Task: inverse folding
């Protein structure tokens, strides 16, 4: 399933990110804000548990989220989206998967992995701003499934159809939540029109 979230706030934030002149401090803050909106949508299917609460006037049914949450960032650029998840789930577990895309082959090169043991009991939000060829996301989900992850969603800011197709092929049950589906990948496997290199623009490198 692909959810392309159509909302004025998301359109506005994404336009700030796409604009060439946006400085890295604004870019970083906007990635964080846009991520909170995507997490809001991605949380719709989380299980809730009814539990009795007392208002100042009477008893009534209240609700709490009936699962632990883990946020998994694909380094580096995914780090910029983590606080969006933590703003809704401050006690979430965190995992980090380091990988970069080889400039020649466009294949992901893993260099770091740290996943909490409790991942199997969590709903996992995997975050990375860009879904281009899909190689990095497929590799990340492979690593998470090996570690025992079961309930997952993938959140990105922009996606290309090639990346969606690849992720569906390897992990057909994984929900993909994105702010936009862009036109194409170019010869360098960059998303067009895109927003440039999310990692470089977030960190000012
Ligand atoms: C970017 C991006 C994704 C990956 C997407 O990372 O953040 O992780 O490329 O491409 P794919 O779908 O074709 O695999 P990059 O390699 O630029 O590393 P960085 O986050 O450290 O900048």
Result:
């Amino acid at each position: 399933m692909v959810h392309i979230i159509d909302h004025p706030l998301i359109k506005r934030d994404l336009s700030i990110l796409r604009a060439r002149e946006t400085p890295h401090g604004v870019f970083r803050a906007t990635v964080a804000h846009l991520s909170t909106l995507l997490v809001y949508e991605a949380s719709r299917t989380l299980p809730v548990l009814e539990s009795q609460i007392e208002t100042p006037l009477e008893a009534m049914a209240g609700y709490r989220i009936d699962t632990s949450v883990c946020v998994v960032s694909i380094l580096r650029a995914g780090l910029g989206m983590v606080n969006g998840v933590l703003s809704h789930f401050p006690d979430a577990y965190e995992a980090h998967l380091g990988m970069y895309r080889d400039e020649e082959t466009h294949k992901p090169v893993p260099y770091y992995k740290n996943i909490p043991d409790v991942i199997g009991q969590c709903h996992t939000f995997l975050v990375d701003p860009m879904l281009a060829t899909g190689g990095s996301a497929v590799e990340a989900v492979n690593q998470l499934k090996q570690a025992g992850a079961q309930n997952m969603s993938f959140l990105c800011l922009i996606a290309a159809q090639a990346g969606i197709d690849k992720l569906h092929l390897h992990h057909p049950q994984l929900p993909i939540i994105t702010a936009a589906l862009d036109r194409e990948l170019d010869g360098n496997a960059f998303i067009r029109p895109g927003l440039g290199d999310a990692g470089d623009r977030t960190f000012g490198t």
Remarks:
- The domain at 2-48+61-203 is CATH 3.40.50.2020 (Rossmann fold).
- Residues 74-77, 100-101, 106, 108, 128-137, 163, 189, 197-199 surround PRP (CB under 6 Å).
- Residues 24-42 form the longest helix (19 residues).
- The radius of gyration is 17 Å.
